[in-house]
Amino acid sequence: MWKWLPETQKILLAYDQLRHRLLPYNYSVAWKVTDQGYTIMRALPMDFPADAKAWAIPDEYMFGPAFLVAPVTAPGTGTRKVYLPAGTDWIDFWTGATVAGGRETDAAAALETIPLFVRAGSIIPMGPEEQYAGEKPVAPVELRVYRGANGNFTLYEDEGDGYNYERGACSTIPISWDEKARVLSIGKREFRVVFVSPGHGTGGASTDKVDVEASYNGRAVAVSPN
């Protein structure tokens, strides 16, 4: 990365940092591939079979259960049209703004903000800002909750290398969000909970002011936004 111009370096480093922060999400989704035969990169009809408009979208995809990715392939593009499948609301990852599904929207598409939308009801675990995987093994996970629908996520953890997970050296932590009751239930561990809203819990950087610090004490934990 250091061989690029400073402005390009800044963009590349931001995406690299986002990749590191998403390791808890990515690792958990990868576990679903091994454990359940899941797929990480998903054509829209796989998640939205009832939306006929989604069948014909060739240049968008779901990344795991939460993210809708709309790559930009043309140079000099400032915006691009993104179709958001019906049956759910969508939250702009970069701004926290909510957009109704079943419609096309003009999304910002500068180099530093590839169009990313998160399905309402998603729970995304994000790790600390670090220089390499495993640099901060005891740092709390930041949970981003995208309200608007019920949701759940299973956080998977193991030693990070080797094959001891095949002998049970791993854990799964169920997390669920009840939209009506406005309660987030956590199986175990310590988390920094962020209820995403416009300008709060957006983009790739760590959220300075989280909504709830939740820790596990041997029993399930339920937390609600203020």
Report the mean per-residue pLDDT as an integer. Answer: 91
Number of helices: 4
β-strand percent reads 25-35%
CATH architect. name of the largest domain: Sandwich
N- and C-termini, Cα separation: 42 Å
In one word, what is the shape? globular
Question: Could you give the order of the helices and strands?
Answer: HHEHHEEEEEEEEEEEEEEE
Unreliable stretches covering 5 or more consecutive residues: none
The major beta sheet can be summarized as: 6 strands, antiparallel
Describe this structure in words.
The protein is of the alpha+beta class and 226 residues long. The chain has 4 helices and 16 strands. The chain has a 6-stranded antiparallel sheet with strand order 1-2-3-8-5-6. Strands 9-10-14-15 form a 4-stranded mixed sheet. Strands 11-12-13-16 form a 4-stranded antiparallel sheet. The longest helix is centred in the first third of the chain and has 16 residues, at 6-21.
Keywords:
226 residues, alpha+beta, Immunoglobulin-like, 4-stranded mixed sheet, 17% helix
Give a summary of the structure in a few sentences:
This protein is α+β, with helices and mostly antiparallel strands and 226 residues long. It is built from four helices and 16 strands.
Topology, please?
Elements: H1 6-21, H2 23-36, E1 41-42, H3 44-47, H4 52-55, E2 61-63, E3 67-69, E4 79-84, E5 89-92, E6 98-100, E7 103-108, E8 116-119, E9 123-126, E10 141-145, E11 151-158, E12 170-178, E13 183-186, E14 191-195, E15 212-214, E16 221-223
Parallel strand pairs: 10-14
Antiparallel strand pairs: 1-2, 2-3, 3-8, 4-7, 5-6, 5-8, 9-10, 11-12, 12-13, 13-16, 14-15
